[in-house]
Amino acid sequence: MNTDNLTPKIIVKELNKYIIGQDEAKKAVAIALRNRWRRQRVSNGLREEITPNNIILIGPTGVGKTEIARRLAKLSGAPFIKVEASKYTEVGYVGRDVESMVRDLMNISVNMVKAQGINKIQKRAEELGEERLLNLLLPKGPSDTLNMSDTKEKLRKMLREGKLKNRQVELTMDIQIMPFAEILTPMGMEDITPSIQEMLGNMLPKKRKTQKVSTEEAKRILVQQEAQKLIDMEEVIHEAKTIMEENGIIFVDEIDKIAGRESGRGPDVSRMGVQRDLLPIIEGSSVMTKYGMVKTDHILFISAGAFTTSKPSDLIPEFQGRFPIRVELKSLTKEDFKRILVEPENALTKQYIALFATEGIGLSFEKGALDEIANYATIVNEMSENIGARRLHTIMFTLLEDPLFALPDKRMKRVAITAKDVRERLSDIVKDKDLTKYIL
Question: Considering the entire predicted model, what is its pTM?
Answer without folding.
Answer: 0.82
